[in-house]
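Task: sequence in, structure out. Protein: Terminase large subunit.
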Amino acid sequence: MDLKEKHVKEQTEYNLDDLIEELKIKWDYDNFYYDEEEARKFYKFITKLQLDKGVKGQKIKPLKFQFIHTSEILCVKDKNTGFRKHREALLDISRKNGKGSLVSWIAVYLYFTDPTYGAEYIIVANDIKQATNLFNTMNLMIKGNKTLKKNVKITESMRIMYRKSTNSHLRVLANDGANLDSYASYVVILDEIHEYKNSNAYTKLRTGMGLWDDPLMFMTTTASSGADPHNLEMEMYNYAKDIEKGKFKDEAFYSAIYEAEKDCELMDVKQWYKANPALSIFRKFVDIEDFMKKASRIKSFEAKARRLYLNQHVALDGENAINLKLWRECLQEVNLEDLKGKSCWVGLDMAFVQDIIAYVQVFYDEEKNKYIVYPHMFTPKDTLEERSERDKVRYDLYVDKDDLMALNGTYVNNEELFNYIADMNSKYSFKTEEIAFDRWGSGDISSRLEDHFTIFPFGQGYKSMSPTIRDFEIMLLDKRLIIADNDLLTWMAGNVVATEDPAGNVKYDKSKSKNKIDGIIAMLMALARAIFNNQSAFNHDEATEEFLEMMGWGGD
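Result:
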C-alpha cells in the first residue's frame, strides 16, 4: 500500500469505537477526562447534517483528523466541574483543508445543543465576503435539517440567527473592530486570523467571555509570513510552540498545527501530507503536485508554495523573484522597424528624474499570440560618472551599448523626454493606445502627454500589481513573451525582490530590491494594459486555470 492509499484509508475508514477509546486513554490524566457520551452525541449530530458542497443531500462524514480535533476541543472536560478543559483552541493548517467546515460544525453543534441562556455566538471573518460565505455554509446545513430549521429564526441579510428557547444569538461579523466589545460572547470563532490587521477582535471578544463558566474561543488560520511577530497568527503559533516545548503550561489552550519540516524539498510528498491532512480526499493531490512542480521553476512561487501549501512561515521577500533562466529564454533581438504601425501599450516609470526613467512599450503579436516588450530607458548625462561610482554600476557601458540613453543635464528634462516619445511615434507610426504611469511620480510629464495620448494612472501597490505579476510569471513560463535583449533591463530583472501582504497579494518592491527595477515596473504597467485590452487573446488552457485557482487568488 503506497503512502497515498494508506493516508486515505486512515482518514476515511477509521473505527469510531476504537478512536474514542484511544482518545479516552490520551486525555485521562490529572483532573481531566474525555467525555465519550458527548463525543458520540457530537458525531451523531454532525453526521445528520448535509454538506454544503458536492452531491446535494449528501451527509457529513468527518475525516479522522476532523473528528479528533473537534471532539478534543468539545469533549475533554474537568472531572470536578464538568466544564470543557479547553477555553481557547488554535487550528493552524494549510488552505483548502476544510477549516470552514470545522468552524461550522462546532458553531452549529454548540448553538443547538448547549442550553446556556442568553449566550452570544460570535463568528468573525476577515471581510464581508468571507463572513457571508461562512454564514451561507451554516445556513445551508441548518436548512437541510427539518428539526434545526424549525427551532431557529434566521435573518440572512444581517447574518444573524436567533433561538427563542435559549434567547441566544449567532452572529457572523466582518472584522472591522467596531462594537465587538459590546457582546457577552460565549462562543467565539475567529477565522483566518493570519489576515487580521491587529489583535483587537481577539482582545475585545476574549474579555467579553468573562461572564461565562464554560466559554470557548476557536481560532483557525494558515501560516502568516512570519515577518510580523505581532501578527495574531504568529503570536498564537509561538504561544503554542512554547507550550509544546515545555516553557510553560496552559491547560486551557489547545492547538493543532499542521506544517511541513523547515527547508524540506518541495517535491517531498511526505511533507505534503504533514501540512495537508485532507490531501487525496477533498484536497486534490494533483493540484498540489502540479503547483509544486511549477514552484520548483518559478522563484517567487516557492514562497507561496511553502506558505499556503506547506504551511510554513515564509515571507515573499527573497531575492531573484524573477526566474532569470525563464527570462533569458524569452530574450530576442527586436527591431522597431518590424513593429512599424502596430498598436502598443506603454508603462512610464519616472520615480527619480535625476536617475533612471523607464518608458516600456508592449505590443501584441496576434499571429504568434505573444506579447513583445521593448524598453527605452533614460538617464542624465552630467551625473553619469558620479552615479556609476555611487551605485557600483557601470551605467556608462549600458549607454555605450544603447541600452540606456544619456540625455543632457543633471536630470531628465520632461520636454526632451516628450520630444523623444513624439519623434519615435512619428517615425514608426506606432498606435500608442495608452500610457500607464505611476500617479505619484510622473509630475508635469503626465499633463504634457495627456494632450496627445490616452493616459492611465496606475498604482504600484499590492492590489494593482498582484494580478499583473501573476500573468507575467505565467506568460514567462509559457514563453508567451518576446523581450527585447537589453542588458540593463535584464540586470533590473535580477534585482527584483517580491513582497506580499497578509492576504497573499504580491508586488515587486523597489524599497526591498537589491538595486534599480524601474524598467521592470514600467514593463508590468504596460503589460497590464496590453493584457486588459486584448482579453480574448489571453486565455489559459484548463490546466493553467486550475493552477491559477490553487495559487491562492481565490476563496478558501
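The radius of gyration is 28 Å.
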